[in-house]
Structures are given as C-alpha cells and as structure tokens.
Amino acid sequence: MDSLESYLFIGLVLFCFGLYAVMTRRNGVAVLMGIELILNAANLNLVAFNRFGGLSEQLPGQVFALMVIVMAACEAAVALAIIINLYKTFQTIHIDEAREMRG
Amino acid sequence: MPNIESLSFFLPELFLTASMVVIILVDVFMGPANRNRVVRQLSLAALAVTAYLLWVQTDPGEAIFFGALAVDPYSRFFKWLFLIATAVIFFVTPYTSQLLKTARHEYYLFLLAVMFGLFLMASAQDLIIIYLSIEIVSIGSFVLAGFLKGDRHSNESSLKYVIYGAFSSGVMLYGLSLLFGLAGSTNLFDVQRALASITGPGDLILVAALLMILVGFGYKISMAPFHFWTPDVYQGAPTTITAYLSVAPKAAGFALALRVLGIAFGDNLQFPADQWFPVGNLAIGTVIALFSGLTMTVGNILAIQQNSVKRMLAYSSVAHAGYMLMAVTILNIQALGAVMFYLAVYLFMNLGAFLVVILVHNKFGYDDIDDWRGLGFKLPLVAVPMGVFLFSLTGLPPTAGFVGKVYLFSVLISSQQFWWLAVLGVLNSVVSLYYYLRIMKVMFLEGEPTGETVSDHPAMTGMILALMVPVLLFGVYWSPLMGWVRASLKIFTPGG
Question: Angle B137-B191-A65 (CA atoms, 0-180°, nearest 5)?
C-alpha cells in the first residue's frame, strides 16, 4: 500500500468529500469543514509527491504543506469570527438565510 | 540570490511590515480620542516612505530569495498602481459617512496588510509564494468587507466572500499541488522546464491542474463563472473597500495570472514578442477566450437589470475583467502591454466612479438609481466628472477608456485569432452603453433645475476632480502612460 498512487487516491477522495460538503451543506461551520478537507487533500498530495518524487533532500513539499496549515488556521479564525458576527445580527449560521441582497 | 543579500532588494515590503508592527504598538498605547487620526497619519507616512523606497529600488538582475520573488519593472509597475489605489482610499476614508461610527484605526492596518500581500502577488514566481500572497490579500479583504459589524449587508457580504474565497483558493491549492507533483519543484521556471518535457499520460493531470489554477485566478479577477461573490460583496462592503477591491486585487490577479500562464505554461522561458505557444499544445488561448466571452456577456447583461448603482458598478467590473481577458488569450508582449495600460486606466475611472457613489451616499444616504435624479443640477461639480468616468467605462472617445479598449482590441486583430471574440467585445460595449447612459440620463435629463444646490464636500470633490484629470488627459495624450507601460514590459526570466 505504500505507493504514490494510494496516497494520491486518498487525497482525491478527501478532495471530493470536501467539494461535496461545500456544495451541499448550508451550515456555515460545516462548509468551513469542507474547505479544510480540500486543503488537507492538497497537503497530502504535496507531502506524498515530496516523499516519492525523490525530493527528500530539500523538502519543498513539506515546507509548502506547513505553510498551508498555518494559512488554514488563519483563515479558519477569520471565518469563524465572521460566522459569530453573522449569528449576532441574523440569529442563524445558515448561509442560505443571509440573503438580503438580490439581483 | 541568497536570503541575506536579497533583503536590500526587498526594502519596500520590509519597511511596510516594520511600520505595521510599529503602528500596532502605537495604537495600543493611544487613547481612543486620537486613535483614528494618528493611525491614519502614520499609515499615510508609511505609504510615502514605501513609495520612496520603491522609487530608488534597483534591479538585482536575478530573482531574490533563492528564486522566490522577481524584482523587475513589470512588478514595479503594478506596485505603483497598488500604492496609488491605497493612498486614494486612505485619503477619502475620513469623509465616508458609513465609516464614521466605527473605530477606523484597525481598518488602516488591514489595508496596509492587504497592500503587502498585493506587492507579493506582483512579484511571486514560486508556487508557495503564489498561494501565500493570494491568501494574505484574501484574509485581509474578508475582514475589511465585514468591517461594519452591526450592518446586516456588510456581514452577509463578508460571509459570502470568505466562503467563496476560501473555497476557490482551496481548489487552486489542489491544482498547485498537482503541478508540484508534475514538476518536482515549486519554482515557476523549473515547472516550465518539467512541463515542456511531458507528453502522454501526464497531460490529463496537467489539464486538471491548469483548470483548478484558473479557478483561483478567476475568483480573484471575478471571471465568470466564478464571479458570484462579486455583486453581493461589492454591494454590502463599505464603499471605500468596494472601490479598493474592484481595482487593486483585480490588477494583482491579472499580474499574477499573466506571469504564471506566460512563464509556467509557455513552450519556452522567454516572453514571446509575436506568438505565444502553450506547453504541450494545450488550447489555453481557446479556454480563456471562452471565459472572456462569457464574463463580459454575463457582466453586461446582469448590469442592465440593476437598480442599485453600487451593484451595477459591481457587474460592470465583471464585464471589464472580460474585456481584459480578451488580450490574455494571446499572451504575447503586446497583449501584456494592453492589459497593463487598461488596468492603469481602469484604476482611475473605477475609483473615480466609486468615489462619486460615496459622496452621493454621504449627501443623500442611498444608492438607488432613482435617487440620483437631477444630480447634475444639485451637484454639478460631481455629476460632470461622473459623466466622464461613465464615458470612459463605456469606452467612448475622448477618454482614456477608449484608448485602452482600442489597445485591447488591436491585440486580437493583429494576432488574427478569435475574431468572434472581438465581435462579441464590440457588441458588449454597445450593451454597456445602455446602462452607463441610463445613469447619465437620470443625472442630467430627469429632475428639474430647482436652483437649490447641495454643498459638496471640498476634499472629496477635489479628489474626484483629480481622478478625472488622468482619465481625460490619457484620452488625448496617452504616450506618457504607454511609454511607462512599454518600459515596464520586462518580466524577469533567467538569462533573459
């Protein structure tokens, strides 16, 4: 099982789950979880390519993945703050109910 | 170039970062009474020093930080555009009634942080930096769009922005990870060398990676069908931020997209003078031509139906992304110059139009088109510049928008490709005439001259008139701007 293909396959499955969650979930926090899945799918790809691509000397894939983890944390912090603020004004975290602008 | 030596070519960005840290500390020790004023003045001073450092910056002749960032005339051109946009927004913020009730000291800091991200976007030539810089710009913009915390529209706009933004940058990241896997390196030039040798089964992954990366760029420049966030975010965000988002991140998105597509997906490392060939004979030009036609059509058709002027300008900015994408289909040096020229012109005309929206909102408190009735009689010093901006956005002579559009079309015509796209562009310009002239008609032909005039704000009116000058000047005498663009058409390439 320790092959590049198996890691890429798991990454692809994670990516599809994330995509599905973003498309179908209407709860703001659940949508965020879907986005995190997409980011982690990309991280898995990066690390797997680094390990099996003969790049173990410089580790660019691992560095990239670390950067992504940091950015994902920042993004989650800002997104959760925005959702809390949404709850204060709309009394809901369902993204469909925040629909006052049309056209 | 190693890290320590690179620092001296990174001074504008370094200074910007240091000044943000200092301003945060000053902000902490400042009483609430002077906060807004002091932070704004310090931020303006930081902008001035950054501009000076950018002015005296010399070309290193190689990429800095081990090839991560390019310091070339191309990136410097865009950095000047970002500086101008940020300075205009800083200038008008204290005169925006929407923002007067909130504490604004953090607002300036976020704008500086976003500008730092934009600087990186203009220079990035490494997959890690590309992702990081897009995220820095996005995260700052999410907060700025929702800056009016108690306002429902502002909350809704930041929610939509964060969901669309995080999702499309996630998809783009997945594409970048595939690209990294194909190339085994994060450097754009190494990516190009690796892609040039790929044939056969790798192609499908390459196509998937390219499309996913286009999703990320498409979101940043609001290209259809990734434009859905644009109208809601533009309508709900504070109008100063709308003005900023409609020009600066869009320019940065184009800067980065041109660099990435041109270098990583070209068949050789140099930017071509005549015809650009994509790697592995992918039909990149055709794909972008389809996106371009869709973007301008969707933007213009939806703009017609709008009654809010802010929302109409949001759809018009989608349409303008479509016009600029027309030139991106060709991707030679001439196309690059046309897009840069148009972005510079677009900066002045779109900022100007949004400043008029801010002023009208200040005076009358609404942005519905019917409320603009008779503005030409009430506020002539504002309505006449608005007319100039609208003429320029339509692309009518003698304004700079006309010259910009001629350059965009001439790229398509001289390349003798995608003639249908040029026809579609002309048709779309005619459609856009309808809704731009509708504002003109409401301002000047409806309502009656009652003789009462509303006092206009001198500082805001002055800024609007100042933005009108380049729009008119570059419409009749554009060689200085075109000369600057031509001098900036040097994208860094190794050995180039």
Answer: 50
Q: Mean pLDDT across chain B, nearest whole number?
A: 92
Domain A4-97, CATH class in plain words: mainly alpha
- At B201 the pLDDT is 61
User: How far apart (Å, rounded) are the C-alpha atoms in residues B345 and B339?
Assistant: 10
Sequence ranges of the domains in chain A: 4-97
Q: What is the DSSP letter of B368?
A: B
> Are residues B296 and B425 in contact, defined by beta-carbon separation less than 8 angstroms?
yes
Do B288 and B326 form a contact (C-beta atoms < 8 A)?
no
Number of CB atoms found within 10 A of residue A25's CB: 16
The amino acid present at B409, given as its one-letter code, is F
Look at residue B84 and tell me whether its pLDDT is greater than 90: yes
Mutate one of B106, B137, B147, B162 to test the A interface: name it (highest A CB count within 10 A). B162
Say which DSSP state B478 is in: -
Q: Mutation test of the interface with chain B: which of A14, A46, A92, choosing the one with the most B Cβ atoms within 10 A?
A: A46
B313, B246 Cβ separation under 8 angstroms = yes
Q: Which of B132, B185, B231 shows the shortest C-beta gap to A71?
A: B132
